[in-house]
Task: structure prediction
Amino acid sequence: MDKLQPVRGTRDLIGEDFARFQHVVSAARRIAALYGFEEWATPIFEDTRVFARSLGETSDVVSKEMYTFADRGGDSITLRPENTAGVCRALVSNGLAQAGLPRKVFYAGPMFRYERPQKGRYRQFHQIGCEILGAAEPLADAEVIAAGWHILTELGIAEGTVLEINTLGDMPSRDAHRAALVAHLSEHRDRLSADSQVRLDKNPLRILDSKDEGDRVLLADAPSIHDHLTEAAQAHYDAVRRQLDSFGVPYRVNPRIVRGLDYYSHTAFEFVTDRLGAQGTVMAGGRYDGLVEEMGGPPTPSVGWAAGVERLSMLLDAAPAAPRPVAVVPVGEGAEAAALDALQALRRAGIAAEIAYKGNVKRRMERANRVNARAAVLIGEDEVARGVAQLKDLDGGGQREVPLAELAVALA
Ligand code: ATP
Ligand code: MG
Result:
């Protein structure tokens, strides 16, 4: 048989790759807990309607990127391309949308999008995310952003990233903006990309997110949402920025941010870096006041973000080193039982410890070096008789005799 390879756009996480990945996720989990986020895990596949309804049929994700298939029972299933819709669906399915809000949810897990794979862009990738469900106040926007900023700071990558923020306005602002945009773009209809000509009829605001260069030229002097904000939308936006200042989170206003999914309104933001080439957005989100209703729940204004774990991992200087183990080395067969006993005593005390499955002392010491052991515990029959072990420092090279009962303390 041909040698099997991982499917295009998927990766194995091994060694240093896994260490970086794990460091990002565990730091995020720890910081999110400081802000009162509880972790949820929702299924990686859902009824296709969960996404088709919420993300918008003209969004790139729904129109081109979803892994959708009929399962053996004929139901249409989609591998989740993101987790916000799933969290909102779970809030409603579990009867949590009626009381006890706001609820703060953290998640981490794999997502799936049929995209052209390249550096920082995969078909199976991973996201961490924070959502605040059931809070209309601008302070929720500011706090969820502050949590994201804190995570980037904890990972040591805040310095090289910039928070860009914008408002998409509320419904009346968007209606007014949409009308002005359609009037403007209709004059240049034939110069728009084919995709955007379709969007002009179906969902004109989506054109603002177009990556087509010709579209971008036409958009340069298109009407801005900022000329159409209602008083309430302006007040929300002003409050978020004021509170970000109070939280000590630096940001830059970028009126071009629109976000790729349909469910956003009011605040939209992205943390961007120039260190990842074209894949420069590491964390992105905004306010989505209508999504829980789309899932059949009551009006539940919400705000959140998602970040790409692979992109964050690439920005890390280095993953923290794994704890170095202690190698337990029986000297002669008669010492095996005592060696295994010492091995388990160390592990029970929380000290990483290893034993080779075979070999003479020389081989076992070679193995100890290969696993980067910091110390070796040598136990021979003479040591067993006296209840001691020889403790050898594998960095300094010194050796001393330690009672077996005191090994864990000596190695702590
Ligand atoms: P992009 O503009 O890079 O396609 P997006 O707007 O589609 O991003 P979101 O849906 O907002 O991305 O997802 C949030 C984050 O998830 C992104 O900022 C990015 O870090 C990460 N992400 C999205 N798609 C991928 C992918 N295919 N591979 C790796 N990471 C991804
Ligand atoms: Mg995308």
